[in-house]
Amino acid sequence: MVQSRKQSQIVENRSYSRLLSEEGGGQQRRDNASYAMRKVIIVGDSGVGKTAIISRFVNGKMPGSGRSTMGATEKLKSIHFANSNKKLPLQIWDIPGADKFRTLSSIYFRDADAAILVCDATNKESFNNLKVAWLCELTAIAPETMLKVLVANKADLLDEHASTDSVGQCVTDKMLREFAVTKKAEFFKVSAKKN
Length: 195
Hints:
- This protein is an alpha/beta fold.
- It has a single domain, classed as 3-Layer(aba) Sandwich (Rossmann fold).
- It is 34% helix and 22% strand.
- It has six helices and six strands.
- Strands 2-3-1-4-5-6 form a six-stranded mixed sheet, with helices on both faces.
- The longest helix is centred in the C-terminal third of the chain and has 18 residues.
- The protein is globular.
- The two termini are 14 Å apart.
- The relative contact order is 0.18.
């Protein structure tokens, strides 16, 4: 089941609060109008929809092509807090998932404030790779205080898979929950395609 907007908003507010806290290094700038820039990396296997999630978040729409990301790309987005009139600027790095770029990926892990770990909700192998490869690299290089968010993308395809033999290849809520609890992370099932 895809998380409701209200549930997502509550968890987002908790996540943003952690980015703003002292633990997350959330010092305010001198002008009191915004917080210091936060570095967010988005990682996962090739084809899980990392670029689509970023495009939906930053631009409000899906990217034009389904090509694999060639080299890391950066996007900027500010989160505005209506109750305080302040903003949180985010520097979001789309890390390529192809194996040939894996050695370069670790460069972007340093000094990251948050990591969004993305798997394909219909592909257990992409979830297992998050646990085995991506998270190991992150823990070896990134700061311990890094906020982690687990995202299972392509949740809109789960209904199609439920009625076929490929249902065993899907990532279950139980798998996501257990992984999130052990890694002290938030988790979401989302669909970049369906917003």
